[in-house]
Design a protein that fits this description.
4-stranded antiparallel β-sheet, 3-stranded antiparallel β-sheet, mainly beta, 13 strands, Rossmann fold, Immunoglobulin-like
Length: 230
């Protein structure tokens, strides 16, 4: 039905309602617009109308990755009394397995065009590293972007994800406006748990900072750094 509607009307927009990830791979290219409404409540119709007719510029971001196949994710039996999750899940599992997705973690579009540039290490000490990034609205409408900071690991003593989200910042921008924001990585948050020591271990290794508008876009701006010594 979606593919048929998309072929007949090039202004077709699909509205998805639900609280979990919904697979869209079979039909996403048949329509020009998809809006995930989650559970919008009693005023959901009014909110959707405001977005669809351009009175409100959407600024939501995906809190999960949308994969292409059920097999790309851990098996789930909803009626099982117990469930075991492995170390990798969500976007970290797909990235570890080098599995493509339809929409990455943190993804979201709006009616304007934004960009994140000039990613720089502002300062680092023994506890945190702070990054300055420039967020720019290159379109002709006011909008909101979400700058996202992910951290990767080089030479860790244990197996690690390719990268993991550690901070983000919502930035409201007028048309043509640029803002510089700070994103912070806490060394304590990047520690791993050593079962033998029964303690968390903070590593003095090379880290990699990735900043972008979503998990995939962040991979385009790597910045190597180390936590300094106070």
């Amino acid at each position: 039905m979606i593919r048929l509607a998309g072929s007949l009307n090039k202004n077709t927009a699909v509205i998805l309602t639900g609280g979990n990830m919904l697979r869209v791979h079979e039909w996403k290219d048949a329509v020009p617009a998809i809006l995930l409404a989650y559970y919008p409540g009693m005023e959901g119709g009014s909110a959707l109308a405001d977005i669809l007719f351009g009175r409100v510029n959407p600024s939501g971001r995906l809190p999960f990755v949308i994969g292409r196949r059920d097999e790309d994710f851990p098996a789930m039996k909803w009626n099982a009394p117990h469930a075991h999750y492995g170390y990798y899940h969500g976007y970290q599992k797909l990235e570890h397995d080098n599995t493509p997705c339809d929409y990455p973690y943190g993804f979201g579009l709006s009616y304007t065009e934004t960009a994140i540039t000039d990613v720089q290490l502002d300062h680092a000490d023994g506890k945190q590293a702070v990054f300055a990034v420039t967020v720019e609205n290159r379109g002709d409408r006011a909008g909101t972007e979400v700058a996202q900071l992910y951290i990767g690991f080089s030479g860790s003593a244990v197996e690690r994800p390719v990268k993991t989200l550690v901070d983000f910042c919502r930035v409201e921008l007028a048309p043509g406006e640029r803002k510089t924001v700070l994103l912070t990585a806490e060394k304590e948050d990047l520690a791993y748990y050593d079962e033998g020591k029964r303690a968390f271990v903070q590593e003095d290794i090379d880290y990699i900072a990735y900043v972008g508008t979503d998990e995939q876009a962040a991979g385009e701006n790597p910045v190597g750094f180390r936590f300094g010594t106070e």
